[in-house]
Amino acid sequence: MHHLILALTVTPSPDPTGTLRPGLSEDQVTPGTWGFVLTAFIVILTTFLIVDMVRRIRRVRYRAQVEEARLAAEAGTPSEAGGPADENGDAGPAAR
User: N or C: which end of the chain has fewer CB within 10 A?
Assistant: First the structure.
């Protein structure tokens, strides 16, 4: 309880310049321009990598659907690429 009262009675200094260690300037402890440029480069690079990954995953999924449709056509069974089918294998009214 004593620590709480002590923390409430301490007032912060109105002059924020006294918070740095002697010999340091604000430029030495902030990322600056080069830090911003490097961070922006990493964000842009990550965005391009995510877009490329999504594109490759989509391509693999489409190839798998085409291969499945091809195998179903060779086997003589209707595929699901033409739309939803009921239990008889007929496509629904939207596909007709």
Answer: N
What's the CA dihedral at 45, 48, 49, 51 to 10 degrees? 160
Q: Which residue has the tokens 């999924």?
A: 61
26 in Cβ contact with 20 (< 8 Å): yes
Backbone angles phi, psi at 91, to 5 degrees: -75, 155
The one-letter amino acid code at 75 reads A
Averaged pLDDT score across all residues of the chain: 78
Give residue-wise pLDDT tens across range 34-69. 999 999 999 999 999 999 999 999 999 999 999 999
CB contact at 8 A, 80 and 71: no
Say which residues have a Cβ less than 8 Å from residue 79's Cβ, sequence separation at least 6.
Answer: 68, 69, 72, 73
Token pair of 30, please? Answer: 């902030």
